[in-house]
């Protein structure tokens, strides 16, 4: 299946601090997606985006903030790493911008690693939408993003081994191809340059 980003990523203490800072930042920022504050967590596969996004969501909910979360892994496949975006825009971003709930059909995977249209997912018009995954902070969406987090933890080889350990050895050639693609994508899109918060070798604020 397409890699869900649950790699080891930063250590738990750093993740907790980063999540708290991201939550504070997004609540202080103006909403740009209608009345919704969109927080994007972008970065390469295996960097720990899913765990960080979940932590941010937990922090926000603990502060009494109505929070929804969407992963780009619900859309992406090996063959369509980023070209699925119109489905996300039409099903989620455009309705939320108009004050309506969103809805999309999740990509699911067969036992043989083949994608197929899965269950429908409802997305409420919450106070904050946490959007995480590769290309979630892409250039075309930055105008409606309140806070962009860039996560690039660990080198490419380490991220590959984490992902293979998670998904199985059969996924190694797919993951290598995915890493080659995302390296080219990020080189052009440069989301880290627009990030409000970055975690790489060191956590930096902007």
UniProtKB/TrEMBL annotation:
Gene3D superfamilies: P-loop containing nucleotide triphosphate hydrolases. It comes from the Bacteria. InterPro entries: P-loop_NTPase. This is Uridine kinase. It comes from Prauserella rugosa.
């Amino acid at each position: 299946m397409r890699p869900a980003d649950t790699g080891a990523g930063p250590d738990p203490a750093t993740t907790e601090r980063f999540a708290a800072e991201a939550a504070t930042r997004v609540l202080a920022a103006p909403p740009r997606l209608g009345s919704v504050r969109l927080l994007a967590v972008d970065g390469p596969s295996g960097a720990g985006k899913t765990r960080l996004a979940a932590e941010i969501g937990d922090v926000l909910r603990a502060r009494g903030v109505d929070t929804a979360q969407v992963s780009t892994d619900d859309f992406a496949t090996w063959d369509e790493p980023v070209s699925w975006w119109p489905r996300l825009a039409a099903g989620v971003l455009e309705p939320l911008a108009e004050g309506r709930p969103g809805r999309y059909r999740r990509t699911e995977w067969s036992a043989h690693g083949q994608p197929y249209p899965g269950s429908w997912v409802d997305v409420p018009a919450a106070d904050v939408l946490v959007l995480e995954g590769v290309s979630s902070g892409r250039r075309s969406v930055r105008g409606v993003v309140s806070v962009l987090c860039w996560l690039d933890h660990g080198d490419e080889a380490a991220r590959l081994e984490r992902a293979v350990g998670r998904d199985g050895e059969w996924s190694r050639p797919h993951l290598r191809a995915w890493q080659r693609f995302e390296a080219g994508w990020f080189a052009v899109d440069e989301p880290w340059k627009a990030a409000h918060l970055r975690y790489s070798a060191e956590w930096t604020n902007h």
